[in-house]
Every structure is written in structure tokens, then in C-alpha cells.
Amino acid sequence: MGNSPSHHLNGSSKKKETPRRRKSFDTESLPDDLVFEILQHLPAQDIYDSAMLVSKKWHKLINSRSFIYEHLRRSTHGLAIKCYDCKHAVFIETQRSQIKISKLHNHEFGDISIWRSCHGLILESVDSDFSAYTNALHITNHVTKQTINLPTPDLNVIKSFHYNNYDIAYAPASMEYKLVSTYYSWTEIRNSTIFRIFTVGVDELWRFVCIGHLSASAANQLVQSTRFVTEGFIHWADGKSKQILTLNVETEVITETPVPQTIFKNYYLSTGTSSLSLLVSRVDSCSSFEVWEMKSETGEWTKLYDFDTEALRWGFKRLWRKRNHRPFKRVLTCCPKRRICPRLELVPVGWLKYKEVLVLRGSSDTMDYIAYNIRTREIIDFFRLDDDICDHCMFQLHTNSLVRLPIRNQV
After folding, report:
1. Helices 65-74 and 32-39 meet at what angle, rounded to 10?
2. Which member of 121, 163, 219, 224 has the lowest number of beta carbons within 10 Å of its beta carbon?
3. Cα–Cα distance between 97 and 27 in angstroms, integer?
4. What are phi and psi of 7, to 5 degrees?
């Protein structure tokens, strides 16, 4: 009877199991090159919030320049979208073949006015009207939460300028980050455009740079045109410019490059490389684009390919109808031969992956966007921004990174 089934079921003769202890994993025993490679695959925010706290060895490795810039090289960039009329800003990126939208928010100042982004470092100000006439101008890495204030401009200069613009770019050879300021002065007679440069961690004050070799129209273009930052260069151009002005950030020399003879309208885009991208909307077809590339070092233009957006237009309308439960109807002035064009005008706003994934806007005054893979001709995602972001926006490349600035000017 002692061996009856009931005896075994009640567990009276069953031995108590002792809990097994988990073997602790010794992270110090892992080879440095293996840890280096594994951590490279993690997002910058996860590395900073978690991996850096594992051990002193990992902390030292993650803070090394080789790790930081190798992680930056492998990282995929997204698009920072800033509303001109308010402080709201968002960041869009691709994750698992879908668009992820997050808010760009400064840990110290809250909502901020973004001027430019370079290697995850955002040049920003607390002012919502882009005045930045005080020491509110600063550089912040939103991942590491490092912030440095920039020197205040001369008060006498402040009273005399208008159309003030700021940019940040990286000089690869000297491994320095430089800020560029262009503004229109009411007091200057011969040259009304003032050009200044500030090297982070080196300069204490802004340096004035001579641009006397430029023509008057080229000097005005430095203030009035849109700026595009590529690796080691800053460009000034707009949709109707016959030339592009390019600053070599390393040598601090500005050159002029003619634009290819285009038929209708130009859209310039940064690429995340040293090249500048140009998309040309052709006059004979509202749905066709030519894609050009300019090598910043030489100013040489190369036509890459054409791509047609006719099928993409129908896909955009179908997704828009599905989300809004009504058909898409717009009247746009996009053709010079026909004053009114009833078709949808897709406006390119930025590359999520250069030469492959392009973000286009439904028109210049809507908040509907589509991410499109040009090579596979597939729609990656259709998305709409919140109502907090107005239709007058600035688009620029941004990457979450671990890049740290020199501590000389750090707050």
C-alpha cells in the first residue's frame, strides 16, 4: 500500500527540491572586441541608459572616441521636423519597416527651437522666434543630455543685423565642430552680408571671415537661401538658384558651383554623406523626377536616375482615403503650362536612406507624408503628424548618437 498511486500523488514521500542558483555572468571575461561589436548593434539611448552602467570596463569602452564614431557611422539617420511658427519638433525614423514618430524635447529647456543638427548634436535656442540674440543659443545632445552655451554676440552687432542664420557642421580632418553664422547688416556699405565662424572647444568668441571675393548676389544668397549640411560642407541654394555656394568647413573657403540646366523646379536634400542631392521636377511630367548628386569636394554633378511617382500618387490617395474616410481632392498650381493642376503634387522633403528611401509630403500645406522605397517601388509607410506641428516646417537629418563635445564651454 505504501507504493499505491494515491501515496505518490499526495507527495508524502516526495523529496523537496532545492532551488537552483543562477550562475552569475562575468561581463569582465568577455573580449573587448566582442563587447565592442555587440554594443554597436544597440540604439544610442539604450547604450547610454543601460549598457554604460554595467561595469567600469564597458563605461570606458563606450566613452572611447573609436566606439562613439563607429557607432555613429553604423547608425541610420532620421528626419527632424521643426515648425517655424512654434517650438514643437518631432523626430521620425524607420524601425522594423515602419515609421516611428517621437517628440524632440530638451531635458532642461523643454520645447526648443531647432536650428541645425550634426552627428546628433542639435544647435538650438529657447527663443521661439529664432532671434537667438542672447546666450539662449546652445548645443545639446538629447541622448547624453550634454549641453553647452555659446557666447553672446556683440550688442552693437545685434542692433545692426537682420535675417540671422546659424548652422553646425563637422570638419573631419581636424575633428572639430564649427558653427557658422550669416546675417545681413544694415550698417555695412560695401558688403551687407556678415559671415562668422565659431569652433567649439577652441574659440572663445565668434570669428569674422572675409567673403569679399563673392559677388553681391552671392553674398545675399548666403543669407536668403536655404542651407544644406553634408559631411564637412555647408551649402546655400534654393529652388531657382543658378549656382550653389559651398563652404568647406575644414578650410573655411566658399566656392561657387553652377547648377545643372534643369527644366522646372529643384528640391535640394542633405544625404548624410559628403554629397548633396538634387531632385528635379520636370515640366513635361508632374509625376517624374530626375535625381542628381553633387560631390561637395569637386562640385561635380552626376545624374543618377529618373523615377516616376504616378503609381505612388494613387497609393497615397488610397491610403489617405482609408484613413480619412473620404476621397482626396486638391487643386494645385504645379504646372507652368497649366495654371491649375488637379493632380496631387508629392513634394520630397528628405532621405531616410540615401538613394533608396525617400520621404515625400502630400503637398506643401498638408501634414500627410509617405515613405517610399525608390529601388523596390514599395510604400514603406503612410503617416500624419500631430496638429501641434503646423504646415510651415523645416526638415533636416538627425541621428541619435553618443557624440560628446569638448568640456571647455560646458555648463
Report:
1. 40
2. 163
3. 33
4. -65, -35
